[in-house]
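Our consortium's second objective concerns turning raw sequence data into structural hypotheses that experimental partners can test. To show how far this objective has progressed, the report includes one record in full. It was chosen at random from the queue rather than selected for favorable results. The single chain below, 529 residues long, was entered without modification.
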Amino acid sequence: MSEPPWERIAGTTPRFNFAQYLMECNARRGDKTAYVDDHGRLSYAALELRARRAAAALRGAGLRREERVLLVMHDCNHWPVAFLGALYAGIVPVAVNTLLTPDEYAYMLENSRAQALLVSGALLPALSAALVRADHEVQRVVVSHPVAPLHAGEVDFDAFVDAQQPLARAAATGPDDPGFWLYSSGSTGRPKAAVHSHANPYWTLQLYGRPVLGLREDDVCFSAAKLFFAYGLGNALTFALGVGASVVLMAERPTPQATFRRLRGEVGGLRPTVFFGAPTGYSGMLAHPDLPGRGDVALRLASSAGEALPADIGERFKAHFGADIVDGIGSTEMLHIFLSNRPERVRYGTTGWPVPGYDVELRGDDGGPVSDGEPGDLYIHGPSSALMYWGNRAKSRDTFQGGWTKSGDKYVRNADGSYTYSGRSDDMIKVSGIYVSPFEVEATLVQHPAVLEAAVIGVTDAEGLGKTKAFVVCKDGSSVGADELKAFVKERLAPYKYPRLIEFVDELPKTATGKIQRFRLRQREAGLA
């Protein structure tokens, strides 16, 4: 273990365990706060001790290397203990979102063949129903912060962990061994399980968290994106622990009010210096009457991902808080951000420039390169790509192509080398033979003072011609007519891009991470939902 970790990753030895790597990075931080949640503080020393105890507990429960555990917990101090403990033991945590139905959890239990379930007490009823429905049994159900008396076969997380002596040595995993799974968010249909290696989070830290975001040991990180989301996992675990920062965790939904409480330091006494959010969340924050003043927070930097950030939101946030939002794009398949603005170089309205260490290509329908200014399918080549989709060879072969990962996004490369988002490949709309980006129309609609959110899809008229239709959510207390919105868009975009149809709705269908599910709107229009 004398060679530096980057050489271990480079292949001079087959040994690398990501949990062990983070523990080695923070071995001298001792009593420094690693995490603060609604229940209290967890120091770096306690995090390592409890993670190693969790590793021993999972081994003691009969789990073997590379077997899976389903991790269904709200963000709290137990989450990183469970995740790192599993990695340390060579067991594979399958982190899934906390807003699913029993049927969806049953699917994930069957798909992953998880041998244990680590679940928040508040989520136990849904998971208990899933266990009844699933054609699969688990060996152990471990409950974090129970809210009701436990039943036979269920054990309290603290009791499960604290009864064990810490595992003496990390599992002898290699950099390419399966480390953990993340399910895709379902923005384009049925979730797929992306299998990530032990080395993948290391690369996101080395290529993005440290050199691009410039995170520091004295930072306090707060991610509205939850830990089960690839973006949130990087923000609140990989990056923060990789630089020795402190993290504020929030179990509840990231409403503006809940977010503001953390930004003001009202939970745990730490005021975040770096905030990680998504465009929908930033929009809701800026529209809220209780938006904190610049002097009420300690922000030096904000980050955005999940979908492209409209320029207007970034500019208004910067004007109010004095901190830029660094927008980028990542994916479950690539684990974190590979195309990004920079803290010192933000061009609002674009997703920025390729992250050093990643190659980016835009390809046309014929598979060849496209010219600057022309939309193309985005492909990425980089070291953090998932190994495959579990049990889905067809989708794996379509997405992971000879070292390149097909993102499913359309982009345009600008003259300065930055990239502008044009929508999902399957969301692009052709009107009179010309591609229309739904995101471009949506970003224009939300500039109207009465509009909170918008989603645009393609529909077919009676003559079989493609048209654009917008679904619009107005801000509380505001209203606007369809004709006014059409004229508003026409004034700002090429005339053919304005939405021919506008429907006002109370809310838009979204994934648990806040991405608009345009495919559900398309299904509704087709009478399939």
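The partners drew two points from this record. Residues 61 and 331 are 33 Å apart (CA to CA). Residues 44-60 form the longest helix (17 residues). Both points have been shared with the crystallography group to help prioritize constructs.
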